[in-house]
Amino acid sequence: MSWSDPRRGVSTLWDQWPSVSIIVPACNAEASIAACVRSIQLTRYERWELVLVDDGSTDTTAELMAALAAADPRIKVVRQPRAGRAAALNLGSHHSAGDVLIFVDPEATISRRTVDRLLQGFDDESTGAVVGDNRPPGGAPGPVWALPGSGHAVRSLVRQALSAAGLVPASRIVAMPSRVLADVGPFPEGAQNEVLALAWRVRKAGRRVGFVPQAWS
């Protein structure tokens, strides 16, 4: 299986068809976790596992996760006493077997092509992480998002500008090869935004953080 971007004539990580672990940390996410998981199950990419991490939920999140895992062997659930998002991300990473780790917020839903497009964002050896675009809950690509002055369109342009300037745009979905995570270390606890803090560490290690607006959450 091979692929190259016909517009750029370059190979990407997608060519290598790596195994992917999608990690969703959640605390008291009973209202959104099922929709998040359903969107992941519909992905076009085939080599994936889903690691759900319950961070000491006091609602029915853990029970919902267990039911979803019981119905799909590609899903595993790990639990911890309430320890915070960074600890949940690190626990999920520890229980992941994928060559590439994709971290997704429990409030997000992804498109069928999100995983493909994130992998296609790794288009050179210097890329250490790739972030996708944020869509409003339930949103989908279409003319409404392209309206000049619309909130999402403006935010997307800002993210593109940040990426072009070598900065790290915030996102609810981030992909990173497991070997890169091993190099830069675990998610830093106590940071205001753990994923963003880790992405900055990737930058400080001399690697690029790419932005792929077509990979939306």
Question: What does it look like?
Answer:
By secondary structure, this protein is α/β, with parallel strands linked by helices. 33% of the residues lie in helices and 24% in strands. It has eight helices and nine strands. The strands form two sheets. A seven-stranded mixed sheet has the order 5-4-3-6-8-7-9, sandwiched between helices. It has a two-stranded antiparallel ribbon with strand order 1-2. It is globular.
How are the SSEs placed, and which strands pair?
Blueprint: E1 4-5, E2 10-11, E3 20-26, H1 33-41, E4 48-55, H2 61-70, E5 75-80, H3 85-94, E6 100-104, H4 114-120, E7 127-133, H5 143-146, H6 151-164, E8 173-177, H7 178-184, H8 194-204, E9 208-216
Parallel strand pairs: 3-4, 3-6, 4-5, 7-9
Antiparallel strand pairs: 1-2, 6-8, 7-8
